[in-house]
Amino acid sequence: MASSFTPKQAIEFDGALLKELQGDVSDKIALTLLKELGLSRMLSSSVIHDNGCGYGAVTMAVMAAEPPAGVQIHATDINEMYLAELKAALAKNPTWPVKVETMDACALTFPDNTFDLSVATFVFAGLTDDVAAASHVRRTLKPGGTGVIAVWKDMPWHAALENAHHKIRGSDEPMAPFLSMTRYKKNEVAKDAEAGGWSPDELEFVEKAEWLNLGPDLKRWATIAWSFLAKPAGGWQQRDEDRWDEAVDSIVEELGQGAWHKVEDGVHKIRMVADVAIMRKQG
């Protein structure tokens, strides 16, 4: 049975803090991809799926790209906390053509051949059935439609948290579940896409890099990250509270020393690189 103990330093999970943790790096990559895919040239009847939408990075990117009138966006996720953040943003933009639904990416209920474009940015690492999800992307795309699956290639913050885990828990203890999930990489995407019905000639990969804003206080960001991402499989233990500062200080030190780190206008940033699968349905 998992422990109910929580270190006194741990921050309680909520959507706003999660957004602070993630920054706008996903939004930037989504916007770049959409522009390169020719969003501005899309027909007014285009239907777009923000698949595993989270707080709506893809939806926001679509709207920031000023799509033609008539575009429709369906944003789906199973996490109600994420969806609440997106719905709050949409309440401020009531004219946006967005429909939000609670839906599992592994079991989409949309009819076949629904979407012109389906975008899943940094979603597949946390799914229960990646093959089913890849299959549903293909099924729900129209012939000639485009699917996008983005996963992280380089995440310097991830290595910093893993090293802190080993430092305070030892090398023999299993990695915290979330940190294990985020190891999903390009090779897994290609394998799962093929198993899900995509042929190799429908698939190509591109790399995209952007800077993640960590804010002016690295220790605050590290504390949020350790609270949200580093909970052990068996639950927090007293040693996590006793060595909390040691873990956070280790993350801060590693993040601040890497070649992928910079400070601009007092804001700490780290460079992150994504592998992006561009999938074009041929039939």
TrEMBL record:
Protein's UniProt keywords contain Membrane: no
GO molecular function, one term: methyltransferase activity
Presence of the UniProt keyword Transmembrane in the record: no
CDD domains reported for this sequence: AdoMet_MTases (cd02440)
Pfam families noted in UniProt: Methyltransf_25 (PF13649)
All residue ranges annotated as the Methyltransferase domain in the record: 49-145
GO-annotated biological processes: methylation
Protein name per Swiss-Prot or TrEMBL: S-adenosyl-L-methionine-dependent methyltransferase
